[in-house]
Write a structure and sequence with these properties.
By secondary structure, the chain is of the alpha/beta class. 45% of the residues lie in helices and 16% in strands. The strands form two sheets. The chain has a five-stranded parallel sheet. Helix 1 runs antiparallel to helix 5. The chain binds iron/sulfur cluster. Iron/sulfur cluster binds next to helix 2 and helix 4.
Length: 173
């Protein structure tokens, strides 16, 4: 069985507050509690970027958190998915244009899913994370196909397939 089948069923999530007011973080805690029970999707909240599949970011990026955010993202193995939780993470929100605010998360790392709201409601967060799961599955499949193609002997047909796969991977969603 392929890795993509397992990964979709047991993603590990890393939560990082880049400088928000903690409102969105409390809603994330609500998702983990029995009422919303996000773990029913097989997710585990982890603290180690090297073992994480999904990065869930709250709050705007501040001057102090900017480098840490990029460092965390670069330590996560591929394939990875980034979810912005709350309007601050999406665009800076109420903190936008403040002296210490650098803007939304997508100014510094690629973002796959935007979850709006101030704070984002648990239902919205769960929706966003479920969307992240399907993106994670697609990225994992694309990587598996690339590895398969690399292991094939090179001939004209293989080169054509490689070009097609590469084009599919870099095409925007
Ligand atoms: S979106 Fe609202 S609740 Fe979330 S961190 Fe920003 S100000 Fe706080």
């Amino acid at each position: 069985m392929k890795l993509s089948a397992f990964r979709k069923k047991s993603p590990w999530i890393l939560h990082y507050n880049a400088g928000g007011c903690n409102g969105c973080d409390i809603e994330i805690l609500a998702c983990l509690a029995p009422k919303y029970d996000i773990e029913r999707f097989g997710m585990i909240n982890t603290g180690n970027p090297k073992q994480s599949d999904i990065l869930l970011v709250t709050g705007p990026v501040t001057k102090r958190s900017r480098e840490r955010l990029v460092e965390i993202y670069s330590q996560m193995p591929e394939p990875k998915v980034v979810v912005c939780c709350g309007v601050c993470a999406c665009s800076g929100g109420v903190f936008r244009d403040m002296y210490n605010c650098e803007g939304g998360v997508d100014q510094f790392i690629p973002v796959d899913v935007y979850v709006c709201g101030c704070g984002a409601r648990p239902e919205q967060i769960i929706d966003g994370v479920v969307e992240a799961l399907s993106i994670l599955e697609k990225k994992t499949k694309a990587m598996e196909e690339t590895v398969q193609l690399k292991n094939q002997p090179v001939n004209e047909g293989t080169q054509l397939n490689r070009r097609n796969t590469a084009a599919a991977i870099i095409q925007p969603q």
